Amino acid sequence: MAGASGRGTGRDGPEKRVFFGLELPVPVRDQLLTLPVPVEGARWQRADQLHLTLAFVGAVSPAQLSSLIGSASQLRAPRFDLEVTGLGVFGHPDTPRNLWAGVQPTAPVTRLHEQLVACLGDHGSGSVAGTFTPHITLARFRKGAGPVRELLAEQQETRFGLLPVRHFALFESTPGQDGSVYTVIRRFSLD
After folding, report:
1. CATH number (domain holding residue 146)
2. Is Glycosyltransferase tagged as a keyword (predicted)?
């Protein structure tokens, strides 16, 4: 399988950079979009970029994409509901790398992630940073970004809304001038 370095051309056509994730309902996205505050070095996500990643795959050929879709179609898991609540950070609050919203409970989405990774076999890398932490990225920070400690404290208990999980999706990620553009390739219903 090709790496996640970008868009190449395989023997059977152009590669696509893909991942599996959960789409967010409009009311939750709208609530999350009320958060952006001036933080030095922050690049806030747009509404169309907000999602919860279940499993990152990377660059795949058309044949590999077809195989991925076939594998994901075999997954059987129950539907569940998540509450989008609170904020967290990757990195230190004084020198953050990513700001994110959490979900509760984490057990059902973690089980779905584990089932998906097992179903994908060698295709799925699981989570980007090793241990799976269900989250919705809200902002990415350049090196030397300003602190977010105060924002974390203010929003620690904030509830952003209900995320009913009735399906998961396979997304294509296309680099763009204003950040990546995520397009749903296929949705997979849960039982």
Report:
1. 3.90.1140.10
2. no
Domain membership of residue 1 (yes or no) is: no
Q: Is residue 168 part of a domain?
A: yes
pLDDT band at 125 (very low <50, low <70, confident <90, very high): low
Residue 51's identity, in one-letter code, is H
Domain that includes residue 98, residue range: 9-189
**DSSP characters over 125-159:** --BTTBS----EEEEEE-TTPPP-HHHHHHHTT-E
Find the helix packing angle between 107-120 and 62-73, rounded to 10°.
Answer: 130
Task: Show the tokens assigned to 130.
Answer: 């090793």
Number of domains in the chain: 1
4 is a domain residue: no
173 within a domain of the structure (yes/no):
yes
Q: Which two tokens stand for residue 151?
A: 């924002």
Contact between 55 and 116 (Cβ < 8 Å): yes
State pLDDT tens for residues 46-65: 999 999 999 999 999 999 99
Q: What is the pTM of this model?
A: 0.87
Gap between the Cα atoms of 101 and 81, Å rounded? 16
Active site residue 167: no
Task: Give strand pairing partners of 57.
Answer: none
Cα(121)–Cα(2) distance, integer angstroms? 15
Catalytic status, residue 113 = no
Cite the DSSP H helix spans in 46-92: 62-73
Q: Which entry of 92, 113, 123, 135 is annotated as an active-site residue? A: 135
